[in-house]
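User
Take a look at the entry that follows and flag anything odd:
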Amino acid sequence: MVYKHLVAAGLGLAVVTGTGAAAFAVDLTITCRCVEGGVNSATAEWIKNSVIPGFEARMAEEGREISVSLTEFAGADEQLTQQLALDFSTGAGADISGFDGFLIPSFVDAGLLRSFEDLIGEPAISWEGWDHISEGIRSILSYDGGTYGIGLGTDVRMVFVRADLFEEAGLDAASWEPSSWDDLLEAARALKDAGVDAPLQLNAGVSMGEATTMQGYWMALLGTGEGVVDEEGRWIVESQGILDTLNLYKTIYVDEALGDDRAQLLADGRNRTFANFRDGRTAMLVEGDWFYRSVTAPGSEFALENRDEIMTWKKMPAREPGAGFRGQGHVSVSGGTGFVINPNTDSPQEAWEFLAFMMSQEQMTAFQDYQPGIRSRSDVPIPDSPFLNETSQALLPLTTARPNDADYNSVSMEIQRMTESVVSGELSPEEAMAQYKAAVTSIVGEENTVSLL
C-alpha cells in the first residue's frame, strides 16, 4: 500500500527466494465500495476469494513475495469519492481503488490521478486486455488522451415492475408496454387506487447523489429529446425539456402523491426506496440493471422472494412516442465503474500487475460466477441469464453516456438540488430551473452554456 513498500525480516534487504532470486516483499491494498454480506457483496467475495489468492499464488510461483489485502468500504458512493479525493491529495490511501468513470475528468484536472501511460508506461500501454475492450468502454475511464482505469463493465437503465402488484390492480404486467409518460402515470394511478402506497419511484434529491442524476433526471430528460449538453458540448441550462422533466417530478411527488416524497429527502432514502419495492409499497422503480444483479439478488439485504416470478422490467418510455433522444421511443443511459491506481503508490508496477491480473479474462470470467453482468472484455461472455441477455440486447442500442467533462460532477450536484427543490415543494419548476441556470453558469462560464427557450 502507499507508505508500505516493505523489505523482509527487518533487514532492509531483499528476500532470498527458493530459486535463489532476490525479490522485495511488497504489501498492496485495494479498496472499493463493497462489503461481504452487504453492499456489492459479490465484488468483495470475488476479490477476496478469487483475485487475491490467485494473484498471490502466481507471484509465489515466480519467486516473488507480494501480499494483497482488501479494505471494504460500506459508506455511500459520495463518501468514498470524498475519501479518495482526500487520500490522493495527501499521499495516503489504498494502492488500487474502485472508481466511477464520471469522476475521472475532475480528479485529473485537480492533479489527483496519473494516467497509466505516465505512471506505469509500456506494461500498461501494451496490455493484452485492450484488444478485448471496445473504445467506448475504455473511454469511460479515460480522459484527454490518457487512460486512468480499467472498467469492470457497463450497465443499462430501465423500469422495474412488480407484476404481482399490477395483477392486484387489474393490470397485466406481461402485456403492458409503456410508450409514454402518460402510460406510466396511468398505471401509477391505478396502482394507487388499488392500495399501493407509492407506486412510482423516480430518484430525486441530494441524498441519493448520482443515483438521482442518472436513474432519475437523465432517464426523464432523455425522454424529452434532450441531453444535459447540446451537440457542441454546451450545458443546456434552460429548455422545455428541463421544464417537462421537473413537471413530471411535480406530478409524481407533489400534485398526485404517486411516489414516496420523503424517501427523496432522507439521508437513507435510496435504501428506503429499495425497501419500498421489496415490501410492496412501490410497484415501478427506475433503476440500473445492478438493481436486479445485486440489490434484489438472493441473500442480499433487499432480496425479493420469488423475484423472477413477481418482478419484470420495461423499457423507459419517452414523454410521447418518438419524442426521445435521437428520436427514440424509449431511452436508457449507461455508466461504468472500474479500478484506478493511486498516483502516490510506492509500488506502481506491482499495483499494475495486480490490476491486470484482476481484469484478465480468467478473473473476469470468474466474476460472472459471483455476479453475472455485462463485462468490459468482449472475450468474457454474458452467462446464461435471460435478464442480462434480454436487457443488453434491447437497451444497449438505445443508450447514451454522460459527458466526459471535468465539470460534470459539479453540474450533477446542481441537478440533484434542482430536483429536490421541486419534490420538496420549495420551488416551482420554473423557479428551480432559474436557480439551476444561475448555478451552472457560475460553474462553467456563460460561454459554455446554452438556452433552448
Confidence is low (pLDDT under 50) at residues 3-22. The domain at 157-332+402-451 is CATH 3.40.190.10 (D-Maltodextrin-Binding Protein; domain 2). The radius of gyration is 23 Å. The chain has two domains: 15-147+336-399, 157-332+402-451.
